[in-house]
Amino acid sequence: MWRRNTSVFSWCIVHLPDLNLAFEFNGLYWHNEIYKNNNYHKIKTDLCLKKGIQLIHIYEDDWIYKQEIVKSMILNKLNKTPNKIFARKCQIKEITDNNLIRNFLNENHIQGFVGSKLKIGLFYNSELVSLMTFGKLRKPLNSKSKSNNEYEMLRFCNILNTNVVGGASKLFKYFINKYKPEQVISYASRSYSNGKLYEKIGFKLQHITKPNYYYIIDGIKNYRFNFRKDILVKQGFDSTKSEHEIMLERKIYRIYDSGSLKFKYNK
């Protein structure tokens, strides 16, 4: 049963003690860097974990523009997902249709579309119901690794309001058996994931990253990649100032998440 908790978890919107879950709604205005420090959401997440509770952060723009995805995620956390499909009844295929991939990720994954080298899907009655995508890892200049067969798992999701039982395992096993990677890394956002799925399919936790940030423009979180200093300088902004200084002068503020769980799979 949903109820507010006004004691230890007074800062959470909702605490569900029977499920060890808590939900907090993060408005973009009051939760940006002007009012909250870089570790604000991370600290809350950590405090909940010490009590054995997973805190789910729901950001204002996700609720406004991706509400159906958020609702599907909530139902999954509550073990109330209405539809169930068994992966053994699905056909597995590699996908080259980028429009299909773009639409599926934008409609079913909270982080939306990202480009990828490999796209592997499960189809049920000719409909795509589960998707896993991968990209090749770029090696840093100081890397000692001689392998060119290292990947990042970029996205995994099921179609909304559907639990594809065994889907992640079937997709990842197909990828491992066919492409035989030396290693695979992946990141799970602590805003809504506890990483259990990764452990179930063979990944091991490496570490927790520091909080990531986004820039708030017109009431929407924007990935920082498009606001790197080199891009801002090309647009005519002062090269002697940092990315952060330039954005602050423009009154475009950051909002920080809770960090991510970095996982690795080794052959």
- Count of DSSP helices? 8
Tell me about the biggest sheet? Answer: 7 strands, mixed
Bin the strand percentage: 25-35%
Number of strands: 15
Task: Supply the helix-strand structural class.
Answer: alpha+beta
Gross geometry: globular
The helicity comes to 25-40%
Return the CATH topology of the domain at 83-209 and 258-266.
Answer: Aminopeptidase
Encode the helix/strand succession as letters: EEHEHHEEHEEEEHEHEEEHHEE
Question: What is the CA-CA span between the terminal residues?
Answer: 44 Å
* Sheet with the most strands: spatial strand order: 5-6-7-8-10-15-11
Oligomer type? single chain
Describe the 3D structure.
The protein has 267 residues and is an alpha+beta fold. It has a domain at 83-209 and 258-266: Gcn5-related N-acetyltransferase (GNAT) (Aminopeptidase), CATH 3.40.630.30. The chain has helices at 40-50, 60-65, 67-77, 98-108, 167-179, 196-200, 229-234, 243-249; strands spanning 14-16, 21-26, 54-59, 83-86, 91-94, 118-124, 127-136, 150-158, 162-165, 183-189, 204-208, 213-217, 220-223, 254-256, 260-266. The strands form 4 sheets. The chain has a 7-stranded mixed beta sheet, sandwiched between helices. It has a 3-stranded mixed beta sheet with strand order 1-2-3. β12 (213-217) and β13 form a beta hairpin. The longest helix is centred in the middle third of the chain and has 13 residues, at 167-179. The radius of gyration is 20 Å and the shape is globular.
